[in-house]
């Protein structure tokens, strides 16, 4: 429950940053719901960088595999207004179950009825098939170059970057300007390890408490 709430908290902090005049890095993440390695990547590598670097990313998520959670995420990617809403939803649902759909989507400004219609109907199946074919295309391209496909796989500007699942922040930051690196990346990058600033941690604690109170989980 607390991990799921943590995913939703990203949305509340996301709007604290601006988006004008920044370097854009094209990133496509191929992943699978409930995959332990994907969950580890999303929570330990991707999510700490999403808040400070989201406006530097042209992000695309590609859920892979024929399962209910991937279908739900695919419908969210299609129908949510943007990745500010998609990311916390995916992080909340990633290692959960389809029954968590309402909980994970609850605080988000999205059309719940439209999401459920997609999930329960043919549209969701079609979208999931498109994601499957996109992943298979990447697999075929890698095979042609005698390269292996891993889950998760992270593609920067059309090129698969092996090892980015353990050094995601570093790979993004090295593609930014020096000024952007100084303003954003130094907070989080120290000898290749993610560092969570004390100020951000304090803000997260406050948001957690406020969120729990609003959900009547605290007396």
TrEMBL record:
Annotated InterPro entries: Interferon-induced_GILT, Thioredoxin-like_sf
UniProt keyword annotations, A-Z: Glycoprotein, Secreted, Signal
Localisation per UniProt entry: Secreted
Signal peptide location: 1-19
One Gene Ontology cellular component: extracellular region
Superkingdom of origin: Eukaryota
Pfam families according to UniProt: GILT
GO molecular function: oxidoreductase activity, acting on a sulfur group of donors, disulfide as acceptor
Family note: Belongs to the GILT family.
Name of this protein: Thioredoxin-like_fold domain-containing protein
């Amino acid at each position: 429950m607390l991990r799921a709430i943590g995913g939703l908290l990203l949305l509340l902090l996301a709007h604290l940053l601006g988006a004008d005049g920044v370097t854009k890095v094209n990133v496509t993440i191929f992943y699978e719901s409930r995959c332990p390695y994907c969950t580890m990547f999303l929570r330990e590598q991707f999510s700490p960088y999403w808040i400070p670097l989201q406006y530097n990313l042209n992000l695309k998520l590609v859920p892979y595999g024929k399962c209910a959670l991937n279908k739900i995420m695919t419908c969210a990617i299609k129908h949510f207004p943007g990745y500010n809403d998609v990311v916390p939803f995916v992080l909340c649902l990633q290692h959960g179950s389809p029954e968590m759909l309402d909980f994970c989507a609850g605080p988000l400004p999205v059309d719940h009825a439209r999401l459920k219609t997609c999930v329960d109907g043919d549209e969701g199946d079609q979208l999931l098939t498109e994601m499957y074919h996109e992943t298979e295309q990447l697999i075929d391209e890698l095979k042609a170059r005698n390269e292996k496909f891993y889950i998760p796989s992270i593609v920067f500007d059309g090129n698969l970057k092996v090892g980015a699942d353990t050094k995601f922040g570093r790979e993004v930051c090295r593609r930014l300007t020096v000024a952007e690196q100084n303003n954003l990346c130094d907070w989080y990058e120290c000898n290749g390890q993610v560092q969570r600033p004390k100020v951000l941690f304090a803000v997260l604690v406050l948001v957690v408490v406020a969120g729990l109170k609003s959900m009547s989980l605290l007396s």
